């Protein structure tokens, strides 16, 4: 296939943009061909296991109230009745990312066999790249470029950030797995990578946040503006976001400058994590690990949504929500009451269950 048919800067200027080979393999990895794997059911989490979860699944943000460092070089293991999750000092081996990238290439080839008309697009977007960094930089640059902001310029910028900060790539890896596991509409990893604007907006934000943190605020704000125009997702580059994030549909999501979001959080469309007015300083919500925030929700002010909490769709939250509880309504109230709220026994962001305990708070009948 002639590369001249691909309108992608790195292919038209291969000597300049050829990415380094980051993931050498002595032999091809075995890639599963199943495209319809079903996520494992989430088992119940008792108090002890829940405590272990929130202890070992923390984002590395110093201003997250409940953030605690992980000491030593020991393996942190969380066991449930159905599976075991192992993390080594919160660092994913490069091989895991490389394996997922090989899986995505296999999925792309399968898609090309089913729809040959897409072969050129898949070649330019996935198959011609040696690493996820290169493909992500290229795909975002094509999405966010315009007549005055060339894709080649953005590609150089994005690739430089991704190669210089592998934490972004590890977070993207976790985000891909989160979408595949939690969203039944996601048929493959490559489908998410190419087509899910929530995933793409989140990765563009990670790049913008890196630039913001390194004093390149004008560039960071420019990326924020382009993301809001292209994806209808407005995340201030100062906001801090953990790993394993699902922005489901994502349209209308607004996240303020001093917001902090933990790991394994699921947020639906039209959610606002905003301020209460013209208050300056630390003025936006802090979202704990494993939180589920339903569609159309507004969380306003410097309030905490504690680990494993669930916010019902259309709620307006102005006060702290305790861990493992459910808040619904406008203004939001705890199911079971403030004095004895019903405690959730599963991580809501993983189960994506929006309707449990509905009989305890609503007598609405159709």
TrEMBL record:
<keyword id="KW-0028">Amino-acid biosynthesis</keyword>
<protein>
    <recommendedName>
        <fullName>serine O-acetyltransferase</fullName>
        <ecNumber>2.3.1.30</ecNumber>
    </recommendedName>
</protein>
<dbReference type="InterPro" id="IPR005881">
    <property type="entry name" value="Ser_O-AcTrfase"/>
</dbReference>
<dbReference type="InterPro" id="IPR011004">
    <property type="entry name" value="Trimer_LpxA-like_sf"/>
</dbReference>
<dbReference type="Pfam" id="PF00132">
    <property type="entry name" value="Hexapep"/>
</dbReference>
<feature type="domain" description="Serine acetyltransferase N-terminal">
    <location>
        <begin position="100"/>
        <end position="204"/>
    </location>
</feature>
<comment type="similarity">
    <text>Belongs to the transferase hexapeptide repeat family.</text>
</comment>
<dbReference type="GO" id="GO:0009001">
    <property type="term" value="F:serine O-acetyltransferase activity"/>
</dbReference>
<dbReference type="Pfam" id="PF06426">
    <property type="entry name" value="SATase_N"/>
</dbReference>
<keyword id="KW-0012">Acyltransferase</keyword>
<dbReference type="InterPro" id="IPR042122">
    <property type="entry name" value="Ser_AcTrfase_N_sf"/>
</dbReference>
<dbReference type="Pfam" id="PF14602">
    <property type="entry name" value="Hexapep_2"/>
</dbReference>
<dbReference type="InterPro" id="IPR053376">
    <property type="entry name" value="Serine_acetyltransferase"/>
</dbReference>
<dbReference type="GO" id="GO:0006535">
    <property type="term" value="P:cysteine biosynthetic process from serine"/>
</dbReference>
<keyword id="KW-0808">Transferase</keyword>
<dbReference type="InterPro" id="IPR018357">
    <property type="entry name" value="Hexapep_transf_CS"/>
</dbReference>
<dbReference type="InterPro" id="IPR001451">
    <property type="entry name" value="Hexapep"/>
</dbReference>
<dbReference type="InterPro" id="IPR010493">
    <property type="entry name" value="Ser_AcTrfase_N"/>
</dbReference>
<dbReference type="InterPro" id="IPR045304">
    <property type="entry name" value="LbH_SAT"/>
</dbReference>
<dbReference type="GO" id="GO:0005737">
    <property type="term" value="C:cytoplasm"/>
</dbReference>
<comment type="pathway">
    <text>Amino-acid biosynthesis; L-cysteine biosynthesis; L-cysteine from L-serine: step 1/2.</text>
</comment>
